[in-house]
Amino acid sequence: MQQKSPQHLIDRMRETLLFILLTGVITIARADDCQALNFGHGSVVCVCNATYCDSVGRTGLPDPGQFLSYVSSKTGSRLVKSQGQFQKNSTGAALRITLNPSQKYQRIKGFGGAMTDAAAMNILSLSSGAQDQLLRQYFSPDGIEYRFVRVPMASCDFSTRLYTYADTPEDYDLQNFTLAEEDIHMKIPLLQRAQALSAQPLNLFASAWSAPAWLKTNGALIGKGSLKGKPGGKEHKTWAQYYIRFLEEYGKYNLSFWGLTSGNEPTAGEMTNYSFQALGFTPETQRDWIALDLGPGLHSSSFPQTRLMILDDNRPLLPHWAKVVLSDVQAARYVHGIGFHWYLNNIAPPGITLTTTHHLYPEYFLFATEACAGWSPLDRGVRLGSWDRAEDYAHDIIQDLNNFVTGWTDWNLTLNQDGGPNWVKNFVDSPIIVDSSKDVFYKQPTFYSMAHFSKFLWEGSQRVGVSFSQHTSLDISAYIRPDASAVLIILNRSEEEVQFEVWDQTLGFLPGSAPPHSILTLLWSRR
């Protein structure tokens, strides 16, 4: 582990000079740059403490005819801001990217992460000053402005113990339903603080991992097990009421929920010897539970506007799962969207899963509800400074958004250096890693990957068409925001610098260059 090396600084300077020479863009130095630390995993983390943290700051629009560029790269750039000028004539770049605003696709809802028990414990392990700094990084107008927070209902694997809110057997009326210490003393206060920092209301959505053991066929929170009885029966009705009681209890703390999922990874509870909390549903039993119990329960409660997302499981299950649930009119009337996870995306191309589902059911939004790095047995746990993982995030987000997805939610907002705590030792990575022994936290490359989207793609931004003058290895996605400005996000996963120009018919030609292994966000006004 060492401070940023002289060679690293030389690479950064060379990259910046080349960018200026090629594009005429002037880089704007910031006083609050990344305090880089290299742990030997390909790039750097940015170190933050109670008194210092780099920040992207507030992003205004440039003057008409100008554009802003923000770049993060393997060589250590982190949202480095530059400004340039549109040109009347073509730069002659081989790659021309043409903006086609008349081709309109889905509108963006937003981006975020999960306030798990583990995330809350890690934030609270820091001093109050460092806690505030971390929350500001995610939620404030000076930070990356997350709009969504996923909240587990009771325990999951990223808890330190197994519990639900209704562990008293045979309590079908849920008279003993009680939030846990983890909610009252950890998650709720942090969510309130995050909301206070945010310029706009946060969109919370809840997911349950398991029903209480006494409601389940296996009598345990873990392993293969589903609800006893049948949809419409007392166990299924109690489980639906459990969701409503959760919303009521959080409401007492002035926290309202934008949405719910029908339950985390229902296929996990269909697997023999599954190692942590799960509740099994098939698409057919989920359909019938929604139609007979959860849907009518929500509809007649104080929360009829709460958006219900089905599936909340891996992408290869689409479009089949959606077909089973949404072809039933009784279930479909209560559903608003389809949530999915990223863990098996490599075996499920986005076109045949996401785009097919969108075209079958265009009135239901698609939303990525969970993703993390370090989950694979081949590449497990925390990798401080991994640029590969930042590229994995950006590639997946662009791919999803280019296939009608409206938002993307990361998993744990923060973890410790082991990738936990996790009671079953299912350690993974997170965009922010806490080292409480030093009262510091490390912003990973994946944090900046998220920032290139969450900071710039406001709610209501609409994806629009782009076309290319030749084949390119770049990943590209384009948007028109509600303020009529344009956002273009470009990922270069290659070893080569790629020069390009963007043609916006209202303004002319934007000269650009994507450094090797970089993420680039371009922003300009079209008025």
UniProtKB/TrEMBL annotation:
Keyword hit for Magnesium? no
In this chain the Glycosyl hydrolase family 30 TIM-barrel domain maps to 108-457
Q: Please name one Pfam family that this protein belongs to.
A: Glyco_hydro_30
Q: What is its EC number?
A: 3.2.1.45
Q: Which Gene3D superfamilies does the entry link to?
A: Glycosidases (3.20.20.80)
Q: Which InterPro entries match?
A: GH (IPR017853), GH30_C (IPR033452), Glyco_hydro_30 (IPR001139), Glyco_hydro_30_TIM-barrel (IPR033453)
List UniProt keywords, sorted A-Z. Answer: Glycosidase, Hydrolase, Lipid metabolism, Signal, Sphingolipid metabolism
The similarity annotation says: Belongs to the glycosyl hydrolase 30 family.
Full protein name: Glucosylceramidase
What is the native source organism of this protein? Sinocyclocheilus rhinocerous
